[in-house]
Fold this protein.
Amino acid sequence: MGLVMLALLLWALGWAANAALANGPARGTAAARLAVPLIFGATLLGMWELVVRGLEVPLVILPAPSVIAETFAARTGTLWEDFVQTFLKGALSGYAIGCVAAFAVAIVADRFDFLRRGLLPVGNFMAALPIVGTAPILVMWFGFDWESKAAVVVVMVFFPMLVNTVAGLADTGAMQRDLMRTYGASYLQTLVKLRLPAAMPFVFNGLKISTTLALIGAIVAEFFGSPIRGVGFRISTSVGQLALDMVWAEIAVAALAGTLFYGAIAAIEKRVTFWHPSHRS
Amino acid sequence: MTRAAPIAAQGAGVGRSGRVALRAKGMAHTLLPVMTVLAAILALWYLACIPMNAGQSVLTAARADVAVSPESASDRRGMSGLALALRNPGVAVAGAYGQDRARLPAPHQVAAELWAGTVGEPVSSNRSLIWHGWVTMSATLLGFVFGTALGVLLAIGIVHSRVMDMSVMPWAIVSQTVPIIAIAPMIIVVLYSVGIQGIVPKAVISAYLSFFPVVVGMVTGLRSPGSMQLDLLATYGASRLQVLTKLRLPASMPYLFASLKIGIAASLIGAIVGELPTGASAGLGARLLAGSYYGQTEQIWAALFAAAILAALSVGLLGALERALLGRMGMR
């Protein structure tokens, strides 16, 4: 019981520290902006550890963070193998294929207005559907290995990417297009010099949404059958063995991969769309 | 179609009311291209059935002593479906659309399965797609309502407390980049081991998935009133509660509905994935899994379309609600 009281004390301390930082003299600084969420996260982790130890929660319900960290450190080899299988082979290749294909289709659809008017409502509709349900079909077609996972990812990222790119290509003003016409620019020149750069904020929005979708697709597709490695495979089998520390370690891998992937795309976006108002301030 | 139509637009004066004529014109403007795209998809699907199912059609034909082009089965095994279909066009086309467990069932086969599962079975039967859809949808809705309510509450807290804003908001944003659905199997099994099963574990996953989009959207929405509007309420001497109920909440409605549409789609995916790991016996996810175990492709496709129809219905319902509500509030 003492540890639980300690957890409550830790919570009070963490909250007091954050309140002092957030309302104190350092409220606007970048350091405070970074410190407050970190303190909050650390407080939650500390409470998790103390409550699990204090109430002696069994491992099969909730392992303590320290146990998860131990498992993570002890089984980095397995985790790396799963990461390569699910992220590098399945998610990343599918992401690349899906985004490039959607981009190409969007450019064609933008060239022919009839196609754009037909594809956009269909694409919007498809983007809201539970496409991850195609996983069992694609696993049946492409086999158990990473090719089927890449196929699921392709289908999942295609429509959000298509809709965003088409919307972006339509985002130039009449004045800007008229200016290009007075320069005597051809369709291709207008596309490359005006409309593609103007579409980049939308394209990157699609790319960022797709990072999460790619990981979800690759992981869920592994629930329908996979070789004996992969994040989704390890999660479902470890859950079956009640090895929850391993499950949490895999979740940590997936979370890290997702955040870094998103961060990488956001960093590229910052360099490409430096002119956009949201990045200028 | 939110663009305001110019009064002098072409066709605006046709018919009894310009608005009706414009709407009809707008329908034709999108309906024809959409129909063309859908027809093209259907045609491609029918076309794809031929090579996809060629292996099975040729095998059946060879067993029925019809002459097929590479005569030995071992020669055929290495060939792709497309090559087989090209060398035996007649057999491949004839056999493509009637197979029982086709690799790619034809659209009419899926439609027949969907029809048999919805209209052809009594609702209480465990082969009825309406019954399975309801099992999934009830968990989705329960989780969606809880997730949305919690998300709105947290967003209100974040807007009013600087500490909560600075400590919780970055994590809420980071959580959007994490494939949280990976947690689904664990939630199911852990709740099962403490004796909770049935609808609640799936609803927990659904709630969890709809929670973060609502938080992020509602924080943006509650902050959307400008300083002029806030200042006006301050000059009226409005309390924080009054500012919340009279300005912030009404102003956040468009953002709320945008998040709700994302949230319900995510909730449905959560409920479907939540049915996968425990081998649940009911629900659309269970139908998908059972279909993939036994190679019942038509069953998979029918369940997939049922899920798509459910998602489309719920998003469409929210959209209609949004239009009606925002119309009454004079926001569009």
User: Anything to note?
Assistant: The first helix of chain B runs from residue 18 to 52. Chain B touches chain A through 59 residues (CB under 8 Å). Chain B has two domains: 18-104, 129-328.
